[in-house]
Design goal:
Strands 7, 9, 10, 11, 12, 13 and 14 form a 7-stranded mixed sheet that branches. Strands 1-4-5-3-2 form a 5-stranded antiparallel sheet. The chain has a two-stranded antiparallel sheet with strand order 6-8. It is of the alpha+beta class. The longest helix is centred in the first third of the chain and has 29 residues, at 41-69. Mean pLDDT is 79; it is low at 1-23 and 72-80. Strand 4 and strand 5 (117-132) form a beta hairpin. It has 2 domains: 3-132, no CATH class; 141-288, Alpha-Beta Complex (Phosphatidylethanolamine-binding Protein), CATH 3.90.280. Helix content is 20%, strand content 36%. The protein has helices at 41-69, 83-94, 206-211, 258-269, and strands at residues 3-8, 20-22, 25-35, 97-114, 117-132, 141-144, 149-152, 165-168, 172-179, 184-188, 197-198, 226-236, 254-255, 277-288.
Length: 291
């Protein structure tokens, strides 16, 4: 790996790594980074700062949500129990815990070049408070799938098409994840489908026009005859980008393990007020077709 330092804007580093308790919250130090080949420096720094804020909130709030989600669980991977996928994400959608940064100081802000790609790194000192909030009962989202059973027919070009419709009761930014026991993928927004805004006044959404041109076919791993997968939809009243430090190197927008995906989505959601978001989970089964 070649690494060349091209910018170092602040030389002071906050050395202590423990918690600092204030009357109205907890002071923590957290870092974030973003690989920014296709963004401006300002965008790269903003995304790295967002990641640092997520990590700060995770230190204060995340452990409580993890305990809530994984209570009674000894494993955080699906293994041979695909029903756990639904149980874990159902608990995630019911969580009412919110972490909020009320004071923030950027103490390190750098750009380096690694393997010819700009890497933005930000470290912050943040005062985080934990709150409980109630959802907006009039804000809901739906995933409409015509069937819960799809077939792998032994040929990717002949396997069943995965078709679905997305709906929101209010104008919203939609974030759609595909989930399996092996990985999670952010399908909307993505490089293929960048527009994720849902307008209640439009009969056909802009992202639907793109979806209609793309064919998503189901498939099974070579060692399985049956598998459970799912779609997880998050609708937000405000645009809040989902960012993960765990995207695969060769498969951008793909998080390579189930446990990592749950943690990354959780850390993103606990930063968003409960009445500004709604989530829905819909699972389906894939079977090997037998003539």
């Amino acid at each position: 790996m070649k690494c060349k330092n091209v910018l170092f804007t602040i030389t002071f580093v906050f050395i202590s790594s423990g918690y600092f308790y204030a009357q109205d919250g907890v002071w923590v130090e957290a870092s974030g980074k973003y690989l920014g080949a296709n963004v401006t420096p300002d965008e790269g720094r903003r995304k790295a700062t967002d990641q640092a804020e997520n990590n700060a909130i995770e230190q204060v709030v995340g452990i409580h949500v993890q305990e809530e989600i994984y209570s009674s669980k000894t494993e955080t991977s699906l293994g041979d129990n695909p029903s756990e996928l639904e149980e874990v994400f159902s608990k995630l959608t019911r969580s009412s815990t919110l972490g909020k940064i009320i004071k923030k100081e950027i103490v390190v802000n750098t750009i380096t070049i690694e393997n010819d790609i700009p890497v933005y790194k930000v470290t912050i000192k943040a005062l985080v408070v934990e709150e409980k909030q109630q959802p907006d009962p009039s804000f809901e989202a739906k995933i409409i799938i015509p069937t819960e059973l799809f077939y792998d027919r032994g040929d990717i070009n002949k396997n069943d098409l995965l078709t679905f419709k997305l709906w929101s009761s209010k104008n919203a930014y939609l974030y759609l994840f595909t989930l399996s026991n092996d990985e999670a993928k952010l399908l909307i927004p993505s490089e293929l489908i960048p527009n994720n805004f849902y307008s209640t006044s439009n009969e056909i959404q802009e992202f639907e026009k793109t979806l209609d041109k793309i064919q998503f076919r189901v498939g099974l791993p070579s060692n399985k005859n049956i598998n459970k997968e799912a779609l997880f939809l998050v609708a937000l009243k405000d645009k809040v980008d989902f960012i993960s430090e765990n995207y695969g190197i060769d498969k951008f927008d793909v998080i390579p393990t189930y446990k990592t995906a749950v943690t990354d989505i959780m850390n993103w959601l606990i930063k968003i007020p409960r009445d500004r978001r709604t989530e829905v989970f819909s699972s389906y089964e894939i079977r090997k077709f037998k003539n």
